[in-house]
């Protein structure tokens, strides 16, 4: 079953388009539900998760990886939903996590600045000058977030399979265009693509399980075989191995867990004659 991610600066139209696509295809439609699921699963406040995937990181957060664990929680929840297929996800960061997955249709929906300002005025009951300021601030936050965390620009068309401008295209026509694209062989799920997404979901789940204690660990997985790599001081290796095995115990889908914990090497001071 196909998967669609919708990104748009217009929340109202993005939601409307996603709901109509999901209704037509008989798919699930998700957005805030992913945040709620991650909040419950990892026992963290919803507001912190929402801010982590919306607000650009502060200088302190950039230096300390302050948002990393919240983003890891969100990513795990999102990929574990997407791996089952039949999902229309409309949110602000979904497409970043599935860039390498070929059968996910990644769509960017854009609208004119005036339409977005009018939408903000109606949604928040504020005058035009306030609405304009908020829309411009939203654009800055989105650019700074993507740039700081992923070195990407959400406005880059290369991140998407399709970019649709709603200024002269109706919502219904937009839905028709997207559904028509999903009929193409390019977006049909294959066994290899399904396996790829399951591997990504398992990798994200393991990373989320250990990120609070070991944010510097790298995780990869292939067909249920998980590899975790770190470079801790040699004296810490036994404890870290025990910790990681305890943290990952019970994660569904792990067939084999390999820990590649290589001791840090201390540069030798050159001897001078």
Automatic annotation (TrEMBL):
It comes from the Bacteria. Keywords: Kinase, Transferase. One of its GO terms (molecular function) is kinase activity. It holds the Pfam family Cytidylate_kin2. InterPro entries: P-loop_NTPase. Gene3D superfamilies: P-loop containing nucleotide triphosphate hydrolases. This is Cytidylate kinase. The lineage of its organism: Bacteria, Pseudomonadati, Thermodesulfobacteriota, Desulfobacteria, Desulfobacterales.
């Amino acid at each position: 079953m196909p998967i669609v991610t919708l990104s748009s600066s217009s929340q109202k139209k993005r939601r409307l388009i996603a709901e109509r696509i999901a209704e037509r295809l008989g798919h699930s439609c998700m957005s805030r539900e992913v945040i709620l699921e991650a909040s419950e699963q990892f026992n963290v406040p919803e507001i912190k998760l929402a801010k982590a995937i919306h607000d650009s990181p502060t200088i302190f957060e950039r230096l300390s990886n302050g948002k990393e664990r919240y983003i890891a929680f969100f990513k795990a929840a999102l990929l574990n939903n997407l791996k089952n297929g039949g999902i229309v996800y409309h949110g602000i960061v979904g497409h970043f996590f599935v860039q390498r997955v070929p059968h996910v249709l990644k769509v960017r929906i854009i609208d004119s600045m005036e339409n977005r300002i009018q939408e903000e005025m109606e949604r928040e009951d504020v005058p035009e000058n306030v609405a304009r300021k908020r829309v411009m601030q939203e654009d800055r936050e989105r650019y700074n977030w993507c740039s700081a965390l992923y070195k990407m620009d959400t406005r880059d068309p290369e991140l998407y399979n399709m970019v649709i401008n709603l200024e002269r295209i109706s919502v219904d026509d937009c839905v028709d265009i997207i559904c028509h694209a999903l009929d193409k062989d390019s977006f049909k799920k294959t066994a290899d693509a399904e396996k790829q997404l399951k591997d990504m979901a398992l990798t994200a789940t393991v990373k989320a399980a250990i990120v609070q204690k070991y944010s510097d660990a790298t995780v990869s997985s292939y067909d249920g075989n998980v590899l975790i790599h770190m470079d801790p001081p040699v004296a810490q290796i036994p404890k870290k191995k025990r910790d990681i095995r305890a943290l990952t115990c019970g994660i569904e889908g792990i067939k084999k867990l390999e820990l590649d914990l290589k001791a840090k090497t201390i540069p030798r001071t050159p001897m001078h004659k």
